[in-house]
Amino acid sequence: MTAPHGDRVRVAQVIARLNIGGSAIQAITLTQRLGSLGYEALLIRGSEEPYEGSLDDLAEELGVRPLRIARMRREVGVRDLAAFVRLVRELRRFRPDVVHTHAAKAGTLGRLAALVPGRGRPCVTVHTFHGHSLTGYFSPRRAALFLRIERRLAQRTTRLIAVSDEVRDELVALGVAPAERFEVIPVGLDLSRFTVADAERARRGLQLRAALGIPPEARVVTLVARLVPIKRVDRFLAVAQRLAGELDDVWFLVAGDGELRDRLRALPQPARTVWAGFQRDVAAVCFASDVVVLTSDNEGTPVSLIEAQAAGVPVVSTRVGGAAAVVAPGSGALAPADDVEGFARAVRDVLERGSPAADPRAHVLTRFSLDRLVADVDELYRRLLA
């Protein structure tokens, strides 16, 4: 592939942190796969907080060597100026044809840095909304400020990507940009770890249950999430509290860590609740589960639900963001976010349904494949550069 100046097309992927989550997975895997397509790809990343976990092991496994800007972090602060200056310097050194930013912090600093005049200014800027933090995260005043910033930046961005129709529609409704400025490119993942033979699936699931003290004959309802406010782990505990008194063979598993860990552990705990912390082998968590749930107030495209269904596990989710496009009809269920009793009833129905009417694997394996994501992004870059 040839860039406008004659060399290979250079793409800088920019993300604020490689914490455990879908946006970091996308940035790492895109960087690796674009390199195999002939791009010269660089991943620029910031620093995670200690409680967020890190996907450095995935980057190492895929042979991706990110360039770290230590002062680019999650929280807004004075260190952002130093991060911005360093980012401008690194972009000028790399001279990318495309700057592709991911999520809010990197989207702000990366796109501003790409706008700085001078040698090596990119031809194309692309920003992916893996969701958004414009509602449900901040005070009204702060949210209004961030919305004004997003609107201004959208005017200077070549193309905006939303990971689902629902995310695009929310951003259009908020006035970030008109619908025609957006490209909808769903999440794409390497799901091969979740599609194993039944015997291996059973062995690894039982092995994890034994390690966590969960009986092999139990039914397990699992939440895979960062322990942060927007994930509403307190709602999961409320649902578990209702189910624990009705179904005495059901256990509740929380796989994840985060800033709210101690506060959540201090709440009244439903019977048979296990806190597993971060689990590197998410596939084994799915294999050990009978239902995987999502209780968030806000989401882009929930990766935990895609991975669970790739493992053949039905899911129940709040009706937020792109969840409706992820949950397989006839297998999982959607429930209102503000109805704990309704959510508990949906989980109970899925548990007692037995064999689902539809195989959740068929729903996600092509729709959310990594090959499809890379092809979509490659086509977008070529079109914009042309």
Throw out a few tags for this protein.
386 residues, alpha/beta, Rossmann fold, 2 domains, seven-stranded parallel sheet, six-stranded parallel sheet, 13 strands, 15% strand, globular
Uncertain runs are: none
User: Globular, elongated, flat, extended or rod-shaped: what is the shape?
Assistant: globular
How large a portion of the residues is in β-strands, by DSSP E?
A: 15-25%
| Rg for CA atoms | 21 Å
Query: H/E series, N to C?
Result: EHEHEHEHEHEHEHEHEHEHEHEHEHHH
Name of the CATH class of the largest domain: Alpha Beta
Total count of helical runs of at least 4 residues? 15
| CATH fold-level label of the largest domain | Rossmann fold
Give me the CATH architecture of the largest domain, please. 3-Layer(aba) Sandwich
Structural class: alpha/beta
Beta strand count: 13
**Largest sheet features:** 7 strands, parallel
Distance between the termini: 12 Å
